[in-house]
# Entry
Amino acid sequence: MTLDRRHLASLLAAGAFAGRDPAAFAQAIQGTATSEQRPKVGMLVYPDMILLDLAGPLTVMSLAMAEIVLVGRDRKPVATDIGIPIEPSASYETCPRDLDVIFVPGGLKGTIERMDDPATCAFLAEIGHRARFVTSVCTGSLLLGAAGLLKGYRATSHWYVRDLLPLFGASAESARVVEDRNRITGGGVTAGLDFGLTLAARLRDEETARRIQLVLEYDPKPPFAAGTPEKAGGELTRDIRSRRAPVLAAARDAAMRAKQRLEK
# Structure
């Protein structure tokens, strides 16, 4: 089954309120909103992206009554990291140019491929200079950097590629969410919910974001103290880096190529 924007949003949101209509429940949180009042959020989708990077923010944005546009290089379904295909609702060419938000999820293998794709970088550069908010989760910030959208900004990324951000002129920070003017970047994978709630507060208000957080029962208490290199310790962190060494080296090479293109 290929998931398009409507089906994906409904499935994700339904997990928070079984038996309720997602649109009706969003209205119960937010109240009614006209099309002019609904923020327009463009979410990039690409092969090998991490589904959870998209799912968390998409769930929050749907509950915030945003108008969601899933944007692909074309309209062909793209396979995520776990094989579930996502169907874009717009291509780079047909995507609305009046987006309030452009959002880029991560997924290192796919991110590397998109960093080397001139069409993707050109699209993000164009939309990024128009949008109210330029945002990402996980390794998606590398794509923002490759598009020239992070120079002079503070930003974060997944911990094992965060050190690449200065190649794009960004100041790397270790945090779940980093806000710098209209740039909002989230850390790795699970930080998507933190990011989504932060963005909801900016697009709507803090009260709405708090309501969404309660509906999602977002109060994480992980079973293990291993969610950051600092908590996991040196041995486990080195082991993960060692196992990921080839793709991390490929990410650095792609970042260097992007840096050279931006400097021309």
User: Anything to note?
Assistant: Residues 13-20 have pLDDT under 50 and may be disordered.
